[in-house]
Amino acid sequence: MEINENTQVERNLKAIEFEKEGEIEKAIALYEENVTEGFIGNHSYDRLATIYKNQNDIDNEIRILEKAILIYEKITLEDRIEGMPKLFRFKNRLEKALHTKSLLAKQKKRKLS
């Protein structure tokens, strides 16, 4: 299946509109399509990670950040210098999300004991 970058950009623009209108689930669906297709750009990953973080959906936040890191590792390997700062930013966000997940698991464990 050939991926059309214009279609992916159009999805991002429509998802931004949905977010502004408060239709977050519709925005998520469009961003997720781009992620599934391996969109080469940071917007879909940034927004999804933020949305999931705001929804306290740490597992999906981590999933998206991991996918973003894979994309930006590839971009960086292709010697596209602009990929490096975004790669570091996604790795930093993932580290924070994993730390949060660990803290939540410890809290849950304490409550159960």
What does this structure look like?
- By secondary structure, the chain is mainly alpha-helical.
- 81% of the residues lie in helices and 0% in strands.
- The protein is built from 5 helices and no strands.
- It has helices at 5-20, 24-36, 43-54, 58-77, 83-112.
- Helix 4 (58-77) runs antiparallel to helix 5.
- The longest helix has 30 residues, at 83-112.
- The radius of gyration is 16 Å and the shape is flat.
- It starts with a helix and ends with a helix.
- The model has no long low-confidence stretch (mean pLDDT 92).
- It comes from Flavobacterium shii.
- InterPro entries: TPR-like_helical_dom_sf.
- This is Tetratricopeptide repeat-containing protein.
What would the keywords be for this entry?
113 residues; flat; mainly alpha; single chain; Tetratricopeptide repeat-containing protein; TPR-like_helical_dom_sf
How are the SSEs ordered, and which strands pair?
Elements: H1 5-20, H2 24-36, H3 43-54, H4 58-77, H5 83-112
Helix pairs in contact: 1-2, 2-3, 3-4, 4-5
Give the N-to-C terminal Cα separation: 51 Å
Integer-rounded radius of gyration: 16 Å
Poorly predicted regions are none
Helix share, percent: over 70%
* Helix/strand structural class: mainly alpha
Short description:
The protein is mainly α. It is 81% helix and 0% strand. The longest helix has 30 residues.
